Amino acid sequence: MRTETGQVFTLADYKPTDFILERIDLTFELHPLETKVTARSLFHRRPGAATDAPLILDGDELVMTSLLLDGIELARDRYEETGRHLVIDGLPEEIAFEITVETMLAPANNTQLMGLYRSNGVYCTQCEAEGFRRITYAYDRPDALGVYTVHIIADKATCPVMLSNGNCIGKAGYGEGKHFASWFDPHPKPSYLFALVAGDLGVVEDTFTTMSGREVALKIYVEHGKEPRAAYAMDALKRSMHWDEEVFGREYDLDIFMIVAVSDFNMGAMENKGLNIFNDKYVLADPETATDADFANIEAIIAHEYFHNWTGNRITCRDWFQLCLKEGLTVYRDHEFSADQRSRAVKRITEVRHLKSEQFPEDAGPLAHPVRPTRYKEINNFYTSTVYEKGSEVTRMIATILGRETFKQGMDLYFERHDGKAATIEDFVKCFEDVSERDLGQFSRWYHQAGTPLVSVSTEYDADQQEFSVSLEQIVPPTPGQARKEPMHIPLKFGLILPNGNEAELDGVTGGDVTEDVLHLTERSQTFTFTNIPARPVLSLNRGFSAPINVDYTLTTEDLTQIAVHDRDLFARWQALNSLALPELTGAVKALRKGDAPTFNPAFIAALLAAAADEDLEPAFRAQALALPSESDLAREIGANNDPDANLVARLSLLNAIGLTGRKIFANLFETMSSSAPFKPDAASAGKRALRNTALTYLSFADNDPTLARETFDKADNMTDLSHALTVLAHHYPDSAETAEALEAFAKRFEGNPLVLDKWFAIQATTPGPDALDRVKSLMESPRFNAGNPNRVRALIGTFAFSNLSGFARADGAGFAFLADQVLDIDTRNPQLASRLLTSMRSWRMLEPQRAEYAKRALAKIDSSASLSVDVRDIAERMLQ
Ligand code: 0A1
Ligand code: ZN
């Protein structure tokens, strides 16, 4: 494990390498404990580099057994191994030279899952961000692009499948029960995109004919017996390939595209050139074992990794500070893909829910950082929702500001100008400036200033002048290292809704720039005045969530209801319902904390039930409308001095009130939304299931009876309905016999299916209340728990810490103390997993003082531990700052 050295990497220190890597030849002789890696790399000195500059290669926990220069062993005084680097002196000034490094690895002992490791007997690699240096000494940085040839030698019996990037150029026997395969990737690439897989795997095959008529072989490798569960992923892959051609004009560039599903993986998936490696959770699906959410995630992640082939691989990042160049852009591309495959409005609602529940808290807490950070201690800690999701929103805003056509021209220019290169955010933005002839300097602050802007809004209608004024004021809150912010360019989609429900025609405007339906807020405060507005309109602002901001705009219930019923933007209708719900919840929390019973505004409940029963609205939208703001949304709204128990009870009380008032509507929806047709994972069918399951939740509240949930559980013919019914039982009737039986039946039925058992753990980990911690602890003792598998750890401990606010942030601090112990233990095996779990405490300062004190103690305990990984040390330090 790498431990803290105090080293900070800064963008300002970026320097190109002194040598240029041309090609690299890798030979792997695979063995669980003694894998020999021979890396032959051809370098030449960069023109202009100092003639005496040494070659400095990166390494991490390597055992080097031989080092050659042009085939001859290097004398001991010509090189130095510093622990992190191999430094070689006296290299030629002008001619190219070859360095051969031989290292010995023990993949079976690699529990960090970075570099070469074993997952369920399969050899696989993970090199992003800095895993390649755990395989051999190398320029392990994204601006060092080389052409790779890879030879793999392994046992025929245990490794019939041997894969690497590019195309297979040879395969043959190698004596003594072994065989070898050679792979060549013609596209120069950085080391983080290198991949190798070897093992005994089944395969699903298909083909795709590209827009220029080339046939590409498609292969998805999975554990034997799981092949049928890869069919949906294959379908999603073909749709992604087609979409990228249609929408972005991007064609695939090798003869073969492979995906391998492994069961031990730190993240979701990885875009290695031509050989994507996936957490099997994002490949395997069938109706019996996967929920609609699983199907949607698989579609999105398959697309995401495939889209990286252009945004990430063909054009990569100059350095890791530019991570959002590939990630923000690729998330934007996968969001657009899913929006085209499904309902755009519903997709947008789910994106915004996710952004608000993950990225907004990050931006409001001690881990806040700009989309393009300028310093880091551990890059693994920057694969964040700020870089990914806020990065995507920034790309979306460029499209909003420039318009669809100009945005497309900018993307085309980006692909043309930077293909085959390592680029920066400045390069990216410049392409849009060049095609639009606009200065995006102020806009670029979105990349550099952290924190969620708060826009305060007030409006005034002058009936005599028929003028409507909108006054806006923006504040970007201070964040760690950035006390003062400059005003941002905030593009706000908007509309003015007249009392008759129609949209006002926009005639003239003063006070700022308005282009079609976008109002451009660029000053700290600005008043836009619209002329010729015949009656007092309601302002619908930030339609489609065109900017990732918080809005402070107090509308009356009548005005919000006007938006909720009439807005032509479905997203805005959902947003209005959400804005109506929040004060109901905060009011209930206030009442509860004073010892009073909460009461709710019947007008809100009526508006919600009207949406629920409105057959003109698609079922998926209605289900979203009925899904109240989460406990974490509520905590964010309250801001400081949060009591998670009161938040939980407030939310449950509102669910109960809605359930009772809308009992008939829900009973009707539960019936009408059911289907006897065979399961289909498409968005429309999923929407019906979502609405029916939402109805089940409300009914079970209204009736305070587990019977209907239990019946649904018994009859369910798909995982969406089955797991929802089990969730209702486990969360609302945790002590009932029905629940105990259902949990046991579920576990028995899916004993051999780890991904489904993860759901079983997650459902129990989110049962709210003070017993949750004991439940989690006893589940850890269960033989079904497996501390070595990241998915299982995340399902139980991660779900508990991130998604069970009342259980985790228990008043006596026991939840925090538990997490601290888990983080310290996991850190000894898998620092990335440990540091991610620790980020569950990122909002600790928002808690009431007693809980916050316990949280601080748990963080301090971690921070005072002598042997921490760089990953965990970095997070613990930042959280305590
Ligand atoms: N580039 C991947 C994410 C990723 C990052 C680091 C990893 O290391 C364990 C793995 C995957 C993506 O955006 O999908
Ligand atoms: Zn990505």
Automatic annotation (TrEMBL):
Residues 34-193 form the Aminopeptidase N-like N-terminal domain. InterPro entries: Aminopeptidase_N-like_N, Aminopeptidase_N-like_N_sf, PepN_Ig-like_sf, Peptidase_M1, Peptidase_M1_dom, Peptidase_M1_pepN, Peptidase_M1_pepN_C, Peptidase_M1_pepN_C_sf. It is an enzyme of class 3 (hydrolase). CDD domains: M1_APN (cd09600). Residues 232-446 form the Peptidase M1 membrane alanine aminopeptidase domain. It holds the Pfam family DUF3458. Coiled coil: none annotated. It catalyses: Release of an N-terminal amino acid, Xaa-|-Yaa- from a peptide, amide or arylamide. Xaa is preferably Ala, but may be most amino acids including Pro (slow action). When a terminal hydrophobic residue is followed by a prolyl residue, the two may be released as an intact Xaa-Pro dipeptide. Its EC number is 3.4.11.2. Belongs to the peptidase M1 family. This is Aminopeptidase N. It comes from Rhizobium aquaticum.
